[in-house]
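User: Modeling request: complex.
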Amino acid sequence: MAKENVSKSKGGTATPDAVLGLLSMAPMSGYEMRRVIAQSIGHFWSESFGQIYPALKRLTAEGCVEKKTERQKGRPDRNVYSLTAKGRERLQEWLEVPAVPEVPRNELLLKLFFGSRASVSASKENVEAFVARQKVALKVYAGIAKELKRERAGDPQLPFWLMTVSYGQHYGGALVKWGLETLKELDGLERVSATKRAKR
Amino acid sequence: MAKENVSKSKGGTATPDAVLGLLSMAPMSGYEMRRVIAQSIGHFWSESFGQIYPALKRLTAEGCVEKKTERQKGRPDRNVYSLTAKGRERLQEWLEVPAVPEVPRNELLLKLFFGSRASVSASKENVEAFVARQKVALKVYAGIAKELKRERAGDPQLPFWLMTVSYGQHYGGALVKWGLETLKELDGLERVSATKRAKR
DNA sequence: GGGTGCATGTAATGGGTTACATGATTCT
DNA sequence: AGAATCATGTAACCCATTACATGCACCC
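Assistant: Request completed. Predicted assembly structure:
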């Protein structure tokens, strides 16, 4: 086969770097990490235990994080990990390299693209569900922004956090607008096909 | 471990359905499919040969598509696939089920979230590169919309295609706006930290 | 007694990209 | 001569989610 080789250089995934980032906020256990993710970067990042635990193991072996086992009464022991100097360095290096986005698979658009192969109402339902989800998300983002400004005032991390929230707000707002316009368009198509049927 | 089970029901991936959709536009070979993808749904969907060929095989076995081998002079034989009635039915069924989106991993936002762990200029470069890419994408979308309207006027698929282009335009426009705002914000942070350094 | 939360990890499974294998023709 | 295009397929590999295995404490 030919080349097809514009040097993608994927260079592995960002999982370990995400872990380092989380540990830069506070030392924590693998179990805790899942909860922290849900409450912080969960809207644009996810990690499962099947990723977190092996990542922590590897990072420990590489000397980027340190493990301290805390014995607890009643509950199982926790392995609390914290960043080492090397880990902080690696995190910084990773942050200096601009992210290259890959084309995400968008099933909504795929279905819409082939929309003429099914009923117009099918497309409408699809878009309606999408708009509803975006509207919910927008409310959530507004809540997060308010809460962060109130509870984290003065934190040097705050402006960066707010930028990610703002991303969601711009994104969500635009897509709600698109969705409503698209629904109008679909209504038009539905009327046209109804008229055609009536004429026969 | 507890439940953690809200019934995700992923039910497999959309690859075979995407293939059916493409064949609904015209019969074609696996090789051709890659090219058609690049020229149509490539901005929000991708498939590699390693996916396409096995999918076609499975769909043939299931009776959703039909294979006809065309002998060519000079060039290797091509296996041209076309939809069967069953395949058209399956495509339609899939289109009737609204898409459930998964949280995509956004490396840009991840880096921005941890932006305080590196230089402000690192975040700036990241966002600048992002904005530049979105601007390019917007120009591409505008070109596609114009071309489609000119060359596909009257095609019943056209309105659906334009809806997907419009998605990209709304999306891209919003994110350029976000990016520029964010860059201003980052400039502010840079000035503040410079002032602080100067005071010492 | 049964579910839930805390807590750690491994194994199985699935999905996807990339690389490999093959080979004729055409363009530079 | 070397590279690209046409063309099909398989195999190796990577990443990620889910399921499994284990076990104590607490609450209803």
